[in-house]
Write a structure and sequence with these properties.
Elements (H helix, E strand, L loop, with lengths): L2 E2 L14 E5 L4 E3 L3 H6 L2 H8 L40 H5 L2 H13 L1 H6 L3 H10 L21 H21 L1 H25 L3 H26 L1 H6 L5 H28 L3 E8 L8 E9 L4
């Protein structure tokens, strides 16, 4: 049932207040009068975005545009506009800050290594900021056979796939919510293959931590998506925010794991040393690698 919303004094030419309606996957309350308040006249905004609604009820018809107000097809479990009139899902929005911090930080920390190994590492960090892919940077032994172990061909394949998937996610945003997991399929396969091959305790430790963080992240995502009703019953619907945090910290651990694996195949003459930012002695830190020079043979 829609209830009238008081938007305060209005200019004489403006229409009356619009109702607040429930909609979305989680059936949250959306304050449809919010953008009208910013414009000072509800009628102007609604003539652009919605059909006129009868007082006391009705439904809002979204304009067929991905840029329209509340046009997203994906609605996570967190209540909308509960903590701010400007942000729909407050905790989901601000938990994204970890993506913007850890991506550039890893680019800075891995700079000496990238100078010696491959500047594609910068691409990995930049792509992570925009929910990216690790695909460009992989050992040759895991390339598909049809690219003949050619890194330029593999890079083109990844770029084309990324462009197509990005286009599809814009046309159909729901695909993006599930399609991102296809990126992790080959990474999980490679990680398990290397875990069983290696006897390096440090590499095994990083793989274990990466997998644990990734499983926690996926569990939060799935639970938020499919058990939303349960979490709303106990007033705890922030699991998608936890997904952002866990997957953000999976990134540096998995990146170090990939660097250690890559060094075995591509730089056998080099020794990698793992460090932690800000200090190696701190109980918690962001891992990264540095080159320690040539390995000495006996």
């Amino acid at each position: 049932m829609c209830q009238p919303r008081n938007l305060g004094p209005r200019p004489p030419h403006c229409t009356a207040g619009r109702p607040v309606c429930k909609r979305g996957a989680a059936q949250q309350v959306f304050p449809l009068g919010l953008p009208a308040r910013a414009l000072g006249c509800p009628g102007v905004w609604y003539r652009l975005l919605c059909r006129a609604q009868p007082e006391g009820g009705g439904h809002c018809t979204r304009m067929p545009s991905i840029f329209a107000y509340q046009s997203s097809e994906v609605d996570w479990c967190e209540s909308n506009f509960q903590h701010s009139e400007l942000v729909a899902e407050f905790f989901n929005t601000f938990s994204n800050v970890f993506f913007f911090i850890l991506g550039p930080l890893m680019m800075f920390l891995m700079h000496p290594y990238a100078q010696r190994r491959s500047r594609y590492i910068y691409c990995v960090c930049v792509l992570f900021v925009v929910i990216g892919s690790y695909s460009i940077w992989m050992p040759h032994c895991y390339f598909p056979a049809f690219v003949a172990k050619s890194r330029p061909q593999f890079t083109c394949l990844v770029v084309v796939s990324a462009v197509i998937s990005t286009f599809l996610s814009v046309v159909r945003p729901t695909l993006n919510a599930y399609g991102l997991y296809t990126v992790s399929v080959h990474i999980v396969y490679m990680v398990f293959q290397e875990y069983h091959k290696t006897s390096d305790r440090e590499l095994r430790h990083f793989i274990e931590v990466s997998v644990v963080l990734w499983v926690l992240a996926v569990s939060c995502w799935v639970s938020d998506r499919f058990l939303c009703g349960f979490w709303q019953e106990i007033n705890f619907f922030y699991l998608h925010s936890f997904w952002h945090v866990f997957i953000s910290f999976t990134f540096p651990y998995l990146m170090v794991s990939m660097a250690l694996v890559d060094a075995r195949y591509e730089m056998p003459e080099q020794t990698l040393k793992v460090h932690y930012w800000p200090r190696d002695t701190w109980p918690l830190g962001v891992p990264y690698v540095e080159l320690q020079g040539d390995r000495k043979s006996c």
